[in-house]
Write a structure and sequence with these properties.
It is a single chain. This protein is of the alpha/beta class and about 90 residues long. It has a domain of about 60 residues: Rossmann fold, CATH 3.40.50.20. About 40% of the residues lie in helices and about 20% in strands. It contains three helices and four strands, in the order αβαβββα. A four-stranded mixed beta sheet has the order 1-2-4-3, covered by helices on one side.
Length: about 90
């Protein structure tokens, strides 16, 4: 009983906290995996995906919109959504 109560209070507290906004670069398999992890953490608001594949533009992937290509990053940087980024390459 107590564990459920603590979890319920923690969940209510985390819902009240202001979520950081994030944009995921890449709407491929890795980007989708990252979005699932972020959604599960519930600490961030995903604004959308950025992907240079024109066929993905304006599609909804994992309930998240593909906003467009990397030229949009300049616009989001001006709005101060940009703090840091990670880039993994093979």
């Amino acid at each position: 009983m107590e564990i459920v109560y603590v979890f319920k209070n923690f969940k209510q507290l985390s819902n009240k906290m202001k979520k950081k906004k994030v944009i995921i670069i890449g709407a491929g398999q890795f980007g989708i995996l990252v979005s699932k992890i972020i959604l599960k953490l519930n600490n961030y608001e995903i604004l959308g995906f950025i992907d240079n594949d024109k066929t993905k533009k304006r599609k909804i992937i994992n309930k998240i919109k593909v906003l467009g290509n990397d030229t949009l990053l300049k616009r989001y940087k001006k709005k101060k959504y940009w703090s840091n980024s990670c880039n993994w390459r093979h």
